[in-house]
Design goal:
This protein is mainly beta. It is built from one helix and 14 strands, in the order αββββββββββββββ.
């Protein structure tokens, strides 16, 4: 005995296949570069009229990271960024013209030096060392708050990370 609704069966099967493909494609996503813990600085101290290197650390990265941008806000009557250098995780990265000072703090953008220099999945360590000039007086303090954190993978996909802020105290 032949079925009479053969066309309906093909439509139903086609619809099921199309819906399954759409579901699979929409549920897939490219993981964004990020960290499962934090990105930031710890508390620090320094004597007046000296320079202090403060590392910016990233913890337990997800995905390869090939670019990092962030702002650090601080009281520039207490401390001021005078330079930056590579951290333990970023040797070979481009630090040329990588920071700009503003009245509110400093904006930083660094990028990897090509394949093989990206920060690999699961990494923990410093990404940049901030060279602060200590211009305040003993007892002065400044917040060191990070914001606008952007992490990029080699394909340009952007992600972010929760920040860890610190306080600087002039000793």
């Amino acid at each position: 005995m032949r079925r009479k609704n053969k066309g309906f069966e093909w439509i139903a099967i086609t619809l099921i296949v199309v819906l399954a493909v759409v579901y699979i494609l929409t549920s897939m996503h490219v993981p964004k570069p990020s960290t499962t813990h934090d990105f930031g600085v710890g508390d620090a101290t320094g004597d007046p009229n000296t320079y202090v290197l403060i590392p910016v650390n990233i913890t337990n990265t997800r995905g390869p990271i090939a670019g990092i941008g962030f702002d650090i806000y601080y009281d520039n009557s207490v401390i001021n960024v005078t330079g930056i250098q590579a951290g333990a995780l970023t040797p070979g990265w481009d630090f040329h013209d990588a920071y700009k000072n503003y009245p509110w703090g400093t904006s930083i953008a660094i990028s990897f030096g090509g394949p093989g220099t990206e920060i690999v999945d699961g990494s923990t360590g410093s990404v940049v060392e901030l060279n602060f000039s200590v211009i305040g007086n003993p007892g002065d303090t400044s917040y060191m708050d990070l914001g606008n954190v952007q992490l990029s993978d080699p394909d340009g996909n952007l992600g972010t990370a929760p920040t860890k802020n610190g306080t600087f105290t002039v000793t």
